[in-house]
From TrEMBL, chain A:
Annotated keywords: Cytoplasm, Nucleus, Proteasome
Subcellular location: Cytoplasm; Nucleus
Biological-process GO terms, alphabetical: ubiquitin-dependent protein catabolic process
SUPFAM superfamilies: N-terminal nucleophile aminohydrolases (Ntn hydrolases)
PROSITE patterns per UniProt: PROTEASOME_ALPHA_1, PROTEASOME_ALPHA_2
Cellular component, GO, one term: cytoplasm
UniProt family annotation: Belongs to the peptidase T1A family.
The keyword Cytoplasm is assigned to this record: yes
Domain Proteasome alpha-type subunits: 4-26
Subunit note: The 20S proteasome core is composed of 28 subunits that are arranged in four stacked rings, resulting in a barrel-shaped structure. The two end rings are each formed by seven alpha subunits, and the two central rings are each formed by seven beta subunits.
InterPro entries associated with the record: Ntn_hydrolases_N, Proteasome_alpha, Proteasome_alpha-type, Proteasome_asu_N, Proteasome_sua/b
Annotated organism of origin: Corchorus olitorius
Name of the protein in question: Proteasome subunit alpha type
Function (record text): The proteasome is a multicatalytic proteinase complex which is characterized by its ability to cleave peptides with Arg, Phe, Tyr, Leu, and Glu adjacent to the leaving group at neutral or slightly basic pH.
Automatic annotation (TrEMBL), chain B:
Gene3D superfamilies reported in the protein's UniProt record: Glutamine Phosphoribosylpyrophosphate, subunit 1, domain 1
Record localization: Cytoplasm; Nucleus
Function summary: Component of the proteasome, a multicatalytic proteinase complex which is characterized by its ability to cleave peptides with Arg, Phe, Tyr, Leu, and Glu adjacent to the leaving group at neutral or slightly basic pH. The proteasome has an ATP-dependent proteolytic activity.
Gene Ontology BP annotations: proteasomal protein catabolic process
Disulfide bond among keywords: no
Protein's name in the database: Proteasome subunit beta
Main location: cytoplasm
Top-level taxon: Eukaryota
GO CC, any one term: nucleus
Protein family membership: Belongs to the peptidase T1B family.
InterPro entries according to UniProt: Ntn_hydrolases_N (IPR029055), Proteasome_alpha (IPR050115), Proteasome_beta2 (IPR035206), Proteasome_bsu_CS (IPR016050), Proteasome_sua/b (IPR001353), Proteasome_suB-type (IPR023333)
Subunit structure: Component of the proteasome complex. Component of the 20S core complex of the 26S proteasome. The 26S proteasome is composed of a core protease (CP), known as the 20S proteasome, capped at one or both ends by the 19S regulatory particle (RP/PA700). The 20S proteasome core is composed of 28 subunits that are arranged in four stacked rings, resulting in a barrel-shaped structure. The two end rings are each formed by seven alpha subunits, and the two central rings are each formed by seven beta subunits. The catalytic chamber with the active sites is on the inside of the barrel.
Amino acid sequence: MARYDRAITVFSPDGHLFQVEYALEAVRKGNAAVGVRGTDIVVLGVEKKSTAKLQDSRSVRKIVSLDDHIALACAGLKADARVLINKARIECQSHRLTVEDRVTVEYITRYIAGLQQKYTQSGGVRPFGLSTLIVGFDPYTGVPSLYQTDPSGTFSAWKANATGRNSNSMREFLEKNYKETSGQETIKLAIRALLEVVESGGKNIEVAVMTKEHGLRQLEEAEIDAIVAEIEAEKATAEAAKKAPPKET
Amino acid sequence: MECVFGLVGNGFAIVAADTSAVHSILVHKSNEDKIMVLDSHKLVAASGESGDRVQFTEYIQKNVALYQFRNGIPLTTAAAANFTRGELATALRKNPYFVNILLAGYDKETGPSLYYIDYIATLHKVDKGAFGYGSYFCLSLMDRHYHSGMTVDEAIALVDKCIMEIRSRLVVAPPNFVIKIVDKDGAREYAWRESVKDTAVPAA
C-alpha cells in the first residue's frame, strides 16, 4: 500500500487513489459543518473550536459569501479553502461579466468540484483537503439549493448534509429528523444537528442563514443562545413526557 | 456630442448624462442610460466610444464587487477612482479605452466626492466637472453659479440650467438627459429630462 499512496496520479491495484482518500481523512479531522435546506431558506452551521484568548475571533469567518446569493461553509484545511473560495469568487464575477447573469448554485458547485478534480489528476500537486457545503438561491427560479463537494471532485445536491468531524452522527440525526421546514424551524433543525456533536452554546457554533430577500445573514451569539435554549427546553419537555406515566392506556 | 457633467453638494454628489446612442448620422436610441451604479454608493457616468464605455465600466463594476466579497468591506470612492485610472493607464499604450468618466461616490467617513477621469488616464478630484462639447457651456455655467454646500434643489436647478443651455446652444444637442444622485442613502436615479420620447421598446 505504501507504494501506491505517494503520487496522486497513481492508482492502487484495487482501484484506490490513496491521496484522495487521505484528503478525505483531513476533512474528517476538520470542524463539523452542517447545511439544511428549507422551503424558503437555507441554513449553514459550523462548529467554532474555542478560539485562543488573544485571537480576534471576527477574523476567523468560517461561513463566507461567494456572491450576493451564494454562501459556502467548509471542513478541512482552511488554507486550501482560502484558495478555492478566492477562485470561486472570481468565477462568480467573471460569469456576471460575460453573460450578464448571476451564477446558479449548481454552476458554481460544478466549477469548484471541477477545480478539486483537476488537482486529483495533475502531476506534482496534492488534492485540496476540504469538503464544501454550498448554499444559495437560483437567480431565475428562486428555488433554494444545498450542494456538497469533496476532495475527489464529486458533487451532489442534498436536502440536508453534514461534513467534517462526526459528520456520520450528524447525518444520521438529520436522516431521522428531517422534514420539509421553513424559516425558524429550519434554523432549529440545523442547530439541533450541530448540537449532537458540539458542546452547546452560542460561543461554539457559527450559524448563517440565507433568504432570497435578505441574502446571507450571520446570526448573533445571543440569537444562537436563544435558539439553543429553546431546543434544550423542548428536549426537556420531551424527556419529561416520556418519563411520565401514560394517562390513557 | 455626448455630454456628461456633475457636481458635489452638501452631503451628496449629482451627475447628469445625455441619453442618446449615436452612430455617425443615426440616433440608435435616445434613452440609453450612461450612468452606471457601480455599487451601493458609487455612480459612474461615462461617455465615449460606446463599446468601450459598456465594456470598461462593467469590468470595473465586477472588479469592485470582487474586492468587496474578498475583503468584506466596499472600496472607498478614492480607491475605486484610482483603480479605474490604473486600468486606463495600463491599457493606454497598448489598447486604449476611449471612455471619459465622472465617478461620484459617498463615503461615510469623508462624505461625497467627484472624480474626473479622462480617457488618457488623467485623474482629478473635483467639485464640478464635465466632458464633451457640452462642457464648454456647463463648465462656464457651473463656474458662475456653483458654490460649495449647495442643497439638492439648488444643485438640480443648476443642472437644469446646464441642460437648457446645451439644448439651446449646441448644434447637435442631445434631447434627453438622465440625472442620478448619490448620498448617505445610496446611489439612485433622480430624474429624467426628456424632450423627445422614444416609442416603447418591448422587453427582450
